[in-house]
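Before relying on records like the one below, remember that each one covers exactly one chain. Contacts with other chains, cofactors or solvent are not represented anywhere in the record.
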Amino acid sequence: MLKRKIKELFGIYETGVTYTIPFDEIVVTKDFLLTQIGKEKWGRKLRYYDQTGILQSKIKLTKDFVLVDGYSSYCIARAYRLKEVPVEFVEYIDK
């Protein structure tokens, strides 16, 4: 645990570990910004958040804080103006 905290201080995040970061540090690409979330999916995820206070899907980022998955959760966090969000860092190779 101490080793993980030291890495975090130096901006070294382990994959598969949930971290809490400031919402405004997330970088969203144009592709995601052009994406429309379906009404049914949006309603389901919003109800889940309202009932539990937890984002249903994980927000996944590259080591450079670029969003690669969990756009609907990102949008819910934005709608609720969350200051910090739980994220998971993943290895990402652009195809």
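The chain has one domain: 26-95.
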